[in-house]
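Per your request, structure below.
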């Protein structure tokens, strides 16, 4: 019997949940529990970590899960690695629904870096304004780097940077809005993760229009796994997998 687990927390996971619900498929949606008011999903929903690879494998067995969809954020590396390992251990098919990476367009000035520490190193350290658009985790490499930071979180949260202005706002964001924000805070650099997708793309268009350099943090490399880019492709895979072909 088909019983799907969606590892969620993204816009794409929500779209996948709607597609599965409309198709009448038996599925459970899982949130990490990071936000106080998670978006309601049209599927039975559970919240919180599983307890590592072992905990996830146990959950998969206890709930008779037949397929796992990893629709977590491309930077949710720990969850994605655990899903690969737990599915390998239990023999349950795994598929990732992943948005394509952003690519630089004409007029963009992007400096590609491998991780957060390299992003901090890539900044000039001259006290100028930096829009540090990387969420609320992984901010410590930027401590003591001598910039005025602009942070944008989806909800109020503590952060370690003393010289920071925090804007609380949940996407999708607009180009006029991000242009105004970056001008108002006299931003000289933008630091972002290569998340992909439309909801957070406006800041890159605003940076291009303002001639602002972008420090682009690459996605973490993961072990090989089956990846699709849309719910429609994923439904095709589910049909394929159900026939056991
Ligand atoms: N990282 C980002 O930039 C980002 C951006 C937007 C949204 N999100 C979403 O926020 C959540 C947390 O992201 P993260 O980067 O902190 O994850 P992470 O570092 O990959 O995961 C850390 C731990 O959180 C738990 N976890 C993560 N996603 C979960 C899920 N969907 N359901 C149940 N447990 C989950 C797991 O705990 P156990 O080991 O105990 O199972 C996992 O080992 C994810 O659902 C992700 O899709 C992340």
């Amino acid at each position: 019997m088909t019983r799907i687990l969606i590892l969620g927390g993204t816009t794409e996971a929500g779209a996948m949940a709607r597609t599965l619900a409309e198709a009448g498929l038996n599925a459970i949606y899982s949130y990490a529990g990071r936000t106080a008011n998670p978006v309601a999903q049209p599927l039975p929903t559970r919240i919180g970590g599983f307890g590592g690879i072992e905990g996830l494998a146990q959950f998969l067995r206890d709930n008779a899960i037949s397929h796992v969809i990893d629709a977590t954020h491309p930077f949710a590396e720990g969850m994605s690695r655990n899903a690969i390992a737990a599915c390998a251990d239990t023999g349950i098919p795994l598929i990732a629904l992943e948005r394509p990476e952003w690519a630089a367009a004409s007029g963009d000035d992007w400096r590609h870096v491998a991780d957060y520490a390299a992003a901090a190193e890539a900044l000039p350290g001259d006290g100028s304004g930096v829009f540090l658009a990387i969420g609320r985790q992984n901010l410590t490499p930027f401590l003591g780097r001598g910039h005025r930071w602009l942070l944008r979180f989806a909800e109020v949260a503590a952060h370690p940077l003393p010289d920071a202005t925090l804007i609380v706002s949940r996407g999708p964001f607009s180009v006029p809005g991000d242009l105004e924000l970056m001008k108002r805070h006299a931003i000289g650099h933008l630091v972002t993760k290569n998340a992909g997708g439309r909801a957070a793309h406006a800041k890159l268009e605003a940076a291009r229009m303002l001639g602002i350099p972008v420090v682009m943090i690459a996605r973490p490399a993961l072990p090989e796994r089956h990846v699709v880019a849309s719910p429609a492709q994923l439904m095709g895979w589910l049909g394929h997998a159900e026939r056991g072909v």
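The mean pLDDT is 95.

Regards,
D.
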